Amino acid sequence: MSEETIATKLRQAREQQGKTHEQIHRQTGLSLNVLQAVESGNFKVVEPIYIRMILKAYADHLGLDGAAILKQYNDQFGAPPPLLEVPPPPTPGPHPQV
Question: Which of 6, 7, 33, 69 is the most buried (most CB within 10 A)?
Answer without folding.
Answer: 6
